[in-house]
Amino acid sequence: MPRRVAEPEPGRPADPVPDAAPDPAPDPGAERPEPGPVSVTATAVIETPAVWRDPSPLDPAWASPRRRRRRRWLVLLPVALALVLLLAVTIALGGFTERESVYQPVAPGAVIRTGPYEMSFDKVTVERELSFGEVGWTATAIGHGRLLDGVTEPMAPYLSTAMAVQDGPSGLTVEGFVQEVGPVSDSGATPRLFTPGLESQEYRVEFELPAEYRPSGYLRLAIADLSYDDHSFLQVGTKYWAPSGRGGAYYYLPVTVIATAD
């Protein structure tokens, strides 16, 4: 039968419950058991927040929420507007209009400056010559020229872009071909570059005219305004002397025909 424990009287503390009887002592000579491992179990207490559930039935037309994606045209529209604005400003400032090129007439012998050069021309001679098996004409514009102060390297204009002559009656136009600086040398070793620091020297520029050319009273010699800039199409950063695109000057030079033996 289970042992009854008397209830305490009012105002008297309850008697303590006797501890369990201790394990009996092992018999002498008995094998003592090895103590087993002690395990410790940690119990985590997780508090679950209260969840409120809507008791009303689910609307069948309700769709689950999705992340709204920005429409592509909303992203591209500001870029397109910026490009249109840039284009309008460029057109307003004349960015796509052809730069006006103005050549001013000067009298024969007048001194002009273009890039690092100072030069003048007062006459032109034409002579029939045989070149590469064909008879043509050589026009030679004669004048003077020098390098401006401060230039330290020998140089000369790039004729194919810097100078040209035009026949008034026919409209025939050719670019410069050969240039010589200084007195004519019998050996043919006349310098073709200006030397820094020298005074103005004789300067001759030759132009090759076709056989159909017929000498008239004058030839117009055009000299482009030169600037030291990056004139390359891709703007690679290399600067050199070339026509600025702003025009330049031109002479109406009287023509002297040099007779040649047929």
TrEMBL record:
Residues 1-12 have a biased composition (Basic and acidic residues). It comes from the Bacteria. Residues 1-40 are annotated as: Disordered. The chain crosses the membrane at residues 73-96. Keywords: Membrane, Transmembrane, Transmembrane helix. Residues 13-27 have a biased composition (Pro residues). This is Uncharacterized protein. The lineage of its organism: Bacteria, Bacillati, Actinomycetota, Actinomycetes, Propionibacteriales.
